[in-house]
Write a structure and sequence with these properties.
The structure is a homohexamer. Chain A is α/β, with parallel strands linked by helices. Chain A is 43% helix and 19% strand. Chain A has a five-stranded parallel sheet, sandwiched between helices. The first copy, chain A, is globular and about 45 Å long. In chain A, 47% of the residues are buried. Chains in contact: A-B, A-C, A-E, A-F, B-C, B-D, B-E, C-D, C-F, D-E, D-F, E-F. At the A-F interface, helix 1, helix 4 and strand 5 of A face helix 1, helix 4 and strand 5 of F.
């Protein structure tokens, strides 16, 4: 596994994402965290803010780089001449969706493999949308994101508690 | 289980909700049916109408009271100094979502437990949104809600059939 | 199984739908492909376009006819005096939703049965919404739909590749 | 659906089996309840006893007949020149196993279709093995089987309560 | 929830069981850990050894007592005049099995409720049989059981590492 | 991914196993197919026969080697100083079991990662035990295994059909 792509919206990056990035970076030569730029999908943070938060979170990892992609993930991966997509699985519902995506991607480009890693149990409930929902309802999320991301969330929405 | 909270939107209350309320009220000292007041989430019935329908449905249950909460459920439960949240489970998809919510709540406040009860099989397909969908498409729902709620639905949308 | 109804949005019809139609048409006397006309649900293709694509895809099947329904499927099926609804199952998530729909339909009209068929594994990831998503993101979908439907998609959105 | 096969061990036949048989018999011309004769699989009741209990349970259904098969179900169905296998689905675990069996059967003989029917919710927990387990542990099962089958179970193991 | 029963084989008791016992003991008046005495089911530890390990693990919990039951759980709970059974849920497969058991129990005795609690994520993979499998294959299990239970396992099978 | 281990019983190796081996061998430096030697688990083929069938199936793959392990997989992988275990996922039931195994392995040795690959849909129903069951019931399995393995099965049990 020389090069792998870890794609996502990262709106914002959570400790669950970070755990997958750290574990993957140890078993591959180079890991590209690929942030989707989808103007049709509403996001809490701008693309720049999301990139900044990821950069801050992975700056100690030498073989991790950050990139942006538009359009179909499989096309981006093909252009990059990468062979491996890495995804985290938390639960059965993830599994089904990712199963279908992996099969469709395999059917579009048979050369590219999607490899799945089980999220650590302590992050099995964690997602960017849960973090945002909790914040918007007035809850604290400092256990679920890094202090830097936490500050950015407070700047954005409030709820420093 | 002295006091328990049964939270929901109840838009409107169905026989499935009522079954969980009745069964829970028999094994706890006091049960608070907690209706979420979320102005961002579109509802068919106003908060007042939802409260009225619940009140009418549980008036024979002495130890059941009705309340309203805003924001994060776990914060509301903590303020009320209640230790137990009760939820009904109908199917695997419920299970996964509720599992994640229970873990997140546990992570936010370790003192509060979520207890799950299996919905009776005859209501395993029933949800407020299914009731609304069926009514809007011209179907009858008198088997799924109480006669009082049924009248309220007809007043609201029609379809008395 | 003299007459059966295969309902759906078919926006657009995929090879997965076609496989269910072909297999079902071999074991029943007459199969009605029933396209839902739901003005509240946004569709990529107009009702007429969807009908045209289905008609083109099944024209070699003598015992398959195409119809339109409004409102609740179960009411349409009852009016048609048909006893059987046919649905394809791809995955556990389908199963749960369809289970609930079948139980609700059974509870509304006990005379009508829903029969399920497993989608062929090579189409287990395929859905109209996946096709549309791939096209909108710049991917090719010629393996997932017939050439006629592919042309219609290109006329509509582009991406002839 | 002129002829269909409903296969199983029926050790013993439960009200869940009977419900599928009754519902299927109404939508097909002829239904063959096919009891597997597998000397390698331990059963509580002999093949003759199982046949007797089924016969007694379906004697009012004119288009239902009972048969025995050995070996692979798909071979039996092919020899009988039947095109349809009917199975009941109770839960996700059934779904996965039956999905795999249906795909394997389809791969062995593409002409034969397996159609699935959702078990009524009140029997969604019911299986022959649960019935036997409950009886062996001293519980009552008269709600889960017909009175005739109940008597046979008592003759066999006891527990008339 | 004045009195609740937490049933199981506890062969041996794991940290996953203990977590459910501790959490439940905090929200109920009295908790009975009920160990099944099933001579037909092969166990690694004798009933006495299993009781000893539980006793040692819960001795600091004043409102937890230990009992033995034979036959059907629901009959035992009824005789004890308890209304609540508590079970831990780890995963979807647990959910389905426990769902069916809860429905069957409800159908046998409508007065008794089964309440489910989600196992902490760090024990979501843990079961007595996994512990035994790991030990028999030469692995260490000191993270999964208490030191006392660990010693008992080593006395029984070896593998002190 | 320099070196990876693909563990299993391979009793016998199926086309589903082979597909995972081929796909994995293309994205890693070296792949070790590790056959478990478990005298307590009954197998149709001896260890030597299983090794021979694997060897014959992968002889064109330069970077694939075959090995035997006893005891706990995680211990074997650690001794080999490998960091990656590869597993195929076919369905939700696989997912749950493998999820629990991966978490337990991670808990025993945090350095070793399990990566999952989705089995191709056309093999999603295939397992060694299904192959054996079909053969024993008199069915043909030449589509599910290589011709060489097929001959070995016929030599062992018969059913050349």
């Amino acid at each position: 596994m020389q090069v792998a792509v870890y794609p996502g919206s990262f709106d914002p990056i959570t400790k669950g994402h970070l755990e997958i990035i750290r574990r993957t970076s140890k078993i591959c030569g180079r890991l590209i965290v690929a942030v989707v730029d989808n103007p049709n999908k509403e996001a809490l943070f701008t693309l720049e803010e999301r990139l900044e938060m990821i950069k801050h979170s992975v700056e100690d990892l030498d073989n991790v780089e950050i990139d942006i992609f538009k359009g179909l993930l499989i096309n981006y991966v093909k252009e990059k001449q990468v062979r491996i997509i890495v995804k985290g699985l938390r639960a059965v519902s993830d599994f089904e969706y990712e199963f279908q995506m992996a099969l469709m991607n395999k059917s579009i480009c048979g050369e590219i493999e999607t490899l799945f890693m089980m999220t650590s149990p302590e992050y099995s409930f964690l997602s960017s949308s849960m973090v945002k929902e909790v914040v918007l309802l007035g809850g604290r999320v400092d256990d679920f994101v890094t202090p830097f991301v936490h500050r950015k969330i407070i700047e954005k929405i409030g709820n420093g508690g």
